[in-house]
Amino acid sequence: MKKSWSSIMAFLLIAAVVVFASAGLSSCAKKPTKIVVASDATWPPMEFVDENKNVVGFTIDLVNAIAEVGKFEIEIKNTAWDGIFAGLAAGNYQVIASSVTITEERKGTMDFSDPYVNAGQILVVRKGTEGVATLADLVGKKVGAQIGTTGAIEIEKAAGVELKTYDEVGLAFEDLANGNIDGVVADSPIAANFALQNPTYQEKLMIVGQPFTDEWLGFAFKKGDEKTRKLFNEGLAKVKESGKLNEIAAKWLK
Question: What's the pTM value of the predicted model, to 2 decimals?
Answer without folding.
Answer: 0.69
